[in-house]
Amino acid sequence: MIHLVFQEADIEALRKSFELDESLTGEIVQIKDDFAVGPLGDIYSPAAIEDRKEWWRQVLAGGDYDGLVDRGEVDDNRTVLELKEKLEQDPEQVLWIWAAQNKHDVCGYYWLMSQLKEYPGRVFILYLNNLPFINEKGHIFYPDNLYEIAPREFLKARKLSREVTLSEFEVDPDEWTRICNEHRGIRLLEGGKKLVQEDYDFYDAELRKFITPDWQKASRIINQYLSKSKHPTGDAYLLWRLKVLLASEQYDVQGTVGKMKEFEVKGKEKAAVMDNVIMDNG
């Protein structure tokens, strides 16, 4: 049995559940790219793969994740090739895909589907779509991410496993092709597996609301956004958008720009006054 997840924190959460039920034990692999952001056009071609890497280089340049693209730590295409080799070598091997109700997991699922259509009957999905679980305090909650589930709850989650149908192997890749051909920068999850798209600057307006007339570290601005926004995304993407906003010269900045904990931002007096006027009239 091979388990596939889409977020690093999911790995340890799933591994802990193996201690409670050895029948779950298996290799865990991760699809690491965040397909909820960035270019997707002709996504499986060598040229498009390199274009996406170059886009990530630009997004991560000069920041806390500078150089990540070229370290070889993220190579999902190689991961899928190795996964398919294991399925070919062992006809009894099966794959369990774990996905929660968030745009990151759902986009990863869509990206993966067309690459596994040669293995009907051997690919299973555990999709935690609006399903209740019990948290550590004994309260019912609806997790947005797999890693939020306690290890004992994975024993309940495993009952949700079902075979990916032939229809899904046909329909879902077509839906992903449609999404890719729209050439937008941001994917959002409306519910179920329905994705809608926005432009690259989608997060900018709300991110600006957390820039005040007082100096704040960039890490604080980003963390406030992530804790309060209805549409969270990766901190690396938000850092890039913050740097784009700073380029407009509407804000003052001090420190080493790019390192979230090493530079501070505040609104210029005139810009701050205008923002307050807009809010008062809003």
Tell me what you see in this structure.
This protein has a 5-stranded mixed beta sheet with strand order 2-1-3-4-7, sandwiched between helices. It has a 3-stranded antiparallel beta sheet with strand order 10-12-11. The relative contact order is 0.13. The chain has 2 domains: 2-179; 204-281, Orthogonal Bundle (Arc Repressor Mutant, subunit A). A hairpin with a 2-residue loop joins strand 8 (186-191) and strand 9 (194-198). The chain is of the alpha/beta class and 282 residues long. Helix 4 crosses helix 6 and helix 8 crosses helix 9. The mean pLDDT is 91. It has 10 helices and 12 strands. The termini are far apart.
Brief synopsis:
This protein is an alpha/beta fold and 282 residues long. The chain has helices at residues 8-18, 46-60, 76-89, 103-113, 151-157, 166-181, 204-208, 218-228, 235-246, 269-281, and strands at 2-5, 27-30, 95-100, 123-128, 133-134, 140-141, 162-163, 186-191, 194-198, 216-217, 251-255, 263-267.
SSE map:
Elements: E1 2-5, H1 8-18, E2 27-30, H2 46-60, H3 76-89, E3 95-100, H4 103-113, E4 123-128, E5 133-134, E6 140-141, H5 151-157, E7 162-163, H6 166-181, E8 186-191, E9 194-198, H7 204-208, E10 216-217, H8 218-228, H9 235-246, E11 251-255, E12 263-267, H10 269-281
Parallel strand pairs: 1-2, 1-3, 3-4
Antiparallel strand pairs: 4-7, 5-6, 8-9, 10-12, 11-12
Helix pairs in contact: 1-5, 4-6, 8-9
Low-confidence stretches: none
- By secondary-structure content and strand pairing, the structural class works out as alpha/beta
Shape: globular
Largest sheet: 5 strands, mixed
Determine the N-to-C terminus distance: 55 Å
Q: What is the C-alpha radius of gyration, as a whole number of Å? A: 21 Å
- Strand content bin: 15-25%
Q: Count helical runs.
A: 10
How many distinct folded domains? 2
Number of strands: 12
Percent range for helical residues?
40-55%
Mean pLDDT: 91
Strand order of the largest sheet: 2-1-3-4-7
Please state the oligomeric state of the protein chains shown. Answer: single chain
H/E series: EHEHHEHEEEHEHEEHEHHEEH
